[in-house]
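Inverse folding, one chain.
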């Protein structure tokens, strides 16, 4: 089979297309992937800048979608079934063998491309809202980087859960993306704190989902209502902010992290519980998955460069067949 391997920690330039052996099942589900997701951790890993550094040659990617080739008994999976998968071992190759607990039935209404980019972003956002922020009906969620892959997922999941959203974007084009995917309000990043306070009559928002970090973090804390929670999802701005904890004390606000993959590794049954909530929302149409931007596997380096330049709106996915 064909795969994309990282052979040097030099960023996108370190990727190569290779021919390699197919994986062996050994109690796992063997899935022929049609597409695989591309995420910011892949870019970090390509430079050995992620918290988990894979030895070279490394297989990047954490999610994908395709068709079950074989499955062990007792897990409700069958050959020929359309599925989405999560894999710590990498997904940028045409066939993978994964833990049955990391395989999820994909509705016929969801394309392989969209399904390949679903798990990491959408389950992360659900984890951030449900497990970390402990959302309550009627609350308002501010989403930074709202036109990116995580941001679009945040807008859609929050909307499906009945929450109002304020999308923060940097360009008019990204504002249109946010509006198209369910944002209740859209504001620019410049002066966003003042816009938030105006929209909320001075109260602030209940939850902030922040995959960006950087210099805007302090104004995010100032944008919280009493009892509000900022959920840290990443640092695509490149700068890891610091918190003056007196701000937390004075307004009774919180800053929490949301590392879904780390949480899932400690509790492998957790994604199935999430799927019990999100799966029905997909089936009935309350939650829709956006069709991603596609790159053939031969252009995996360009896909990472697009992430690095923040040139992509929504999710990026590699086509593998």
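Residues assigned per position:
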């Amino acid at each position: 089979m064909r795969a994309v391997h990282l052979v040097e920690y030099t960023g996108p330039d370190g990727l190569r297309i290779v021919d390699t052996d197919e994986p062996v099942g050994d109690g796992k589900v063997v899935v022929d992937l049609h597409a695989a997701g591309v995420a910011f951790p892949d870019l970090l890993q390509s430079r050995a800048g992620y918290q988990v550094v894979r030895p070279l040659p490394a297989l990047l990617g954490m999610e994908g979608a395709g068709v079950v080739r074989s499955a062990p008994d007792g897990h409700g999976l069958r050959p020929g079934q359309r599925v989405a998968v999560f894999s710590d071992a990498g997904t940028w190759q045409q066939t993978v063998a994964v833990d049955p607990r990391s395989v999820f039935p994909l509705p016929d209404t969801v394309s392989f491309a969209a399904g390949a980019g679903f798990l990491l972003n959408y389950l992360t956002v659900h984890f951030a809202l449900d497990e970390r922020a402990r959302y309550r009906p009627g609350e308002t969620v501010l989403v930074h980087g709202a036109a990116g892959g995580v941001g679009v997922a945040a807008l859609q999941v929050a909307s499906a859960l009945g929450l109002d959203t304020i999308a923060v974007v940097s360009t008019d084009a990204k504002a249109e993306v946010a509006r198209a995917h369910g944002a209740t309000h859209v504001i620019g990043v410049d002066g966003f704190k003042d816009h938030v306070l105006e929209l909320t009559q001075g109260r602030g928002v209940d939850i902030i989902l922040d995959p960006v970090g950087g210099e805007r973090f302090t104004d995010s804390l100032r944008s919280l209502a009493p009892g509000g929670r900022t959920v840290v999802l990443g640092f695509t701005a490149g700068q890891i902010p610091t918190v003056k904890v007196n701000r937390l004390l004075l307004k009774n606000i919180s800053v929490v992290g949301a590392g879904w993959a780390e949480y899932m590794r400690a509790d492998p049954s957790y994604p199935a519980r999430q799927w019990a909530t999100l799966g029905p929302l997909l089936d009935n149409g309350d939650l829709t998955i956006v069709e991603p931007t596609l790159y053939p596997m031969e252009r995996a380096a360009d896909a990472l460069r697009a992430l690095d330049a923040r040139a992509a709106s929504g999710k990026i996915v590699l086509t593998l067949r």
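Residues 48 and 88 are 16 Å apart (CA to CA). The chain has a mean pLDDT of 91.
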